[in-house]
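Feature request, filed as a ticket because there's no other form

It would be nice if the structure record came with a short human-readable summary line next to the tokens. Right now we just get the raw output. Example of a typical job, pasted below so the devs can see what we mean:
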Amino acid sequence: MRIAYIVPGVGLDNEELIRRQEILRSLAFKGTEVDVVSVDEGPYTIESGFEEEYAAVSYLRKLYEVKDYYDAFIIGCFGDPGLRAARELVSKPVVGPGEASYAIASLLSRKFIVLTPLRSTVTITWDQINMYGYTGKVYDVIPIDIKVADIQRNSEELLKFIKDSVKDVLSEGKAEAIVLGCMSMGFSMVDLDLSKDLHVP
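Raw output as currently delivered:
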């Protein structure tokens, strides 16, 4: 089994691409090969509707180029840019992290909250939630006010920001799970510490 994690956009340097590839490979089922596939064009980060559309265009050509080499594909952005187009382009599974995360969170909890990097991405995230049909399962979309480019630089600071952002909602029992609504948040590897400290998945 070969899986390609395709990064839309150009904001990650080579060191970060390698780090993410190592994490993906450590999580994959034994015998599964995972490659991080980068592109040569696209936005630096994805923090607006325009950047989301540009990101979709940036990786679809690459997806088509490598479609015969891999058995499945993951879009490397929580916003799932171009997901429908990608599924039309190839006849193999294409996973959008946003869609998959909402599905899992809805199984683990009656209500969950979604963390998003900035206030500018709150509306985009709500649009995505509505499109996938999870509006009734989401208590709130909460911005942590950290730019995507800054998220991976300090996991301790990120941990504090997240805890401060969600503690009231969780203490009042309004949500039972947290979705990290950004792949840079996911790759910061704070999820286990958050689960332990906050007592929610």
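Something like this underneath would help us a lot:
The first strand starts at residue 2 and ends at 6.
The mean pLDDT is 94.
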